[in-house]
Write a structure and sequence with these properties.
Strand content: 5-15%
Strand order of the largest sheet: 1-2
Structural class: little secondary structure
Number of helices: 2
Radius of gyration: 17 Å
């Protein structure tokens, strides 16, 4: 994939009253190994890759890539999952 200027930057907001960033959706050609796509954002804040495991895993369907979260949700040291979900 050729490098695109500004590709690995935080999303811009449309105006100061927006709560959602401007998003662009680009269809990607199928790849059994999503690592090449993830390499483009791996240095971004909180970059994650959820690999479906295809083609080895027969039930995997989607690979998910994400970065630049607007909010981070964390469980406190003294709480369990059920308590966290009640907040």
């Amino acid at each position: 994939m050729p490098h695109r200027q500004g590709y690995n930057r935080q999303p811009r907001f449309q105006d100061r009253y927006s709560t959602m960033p401007i998003c662009s959706i680009h269809p990607l050609p199928y790849s059994a190994d999503p690592i090449a796509f993830f390499a483009r954002i791996r240095e971004a804040p909180r970059a994650v890759l959820l690999d479906s495991g295809r083609p080895t895993a027969e039930r995997g369907r989607y690979d998910l890539l994400s970065a630049w979260p607007l909010q981070e949700l964390t469980v406190a040291d003294d709480e369990n999952g059920a308590t966290y979900l009640q907040r």
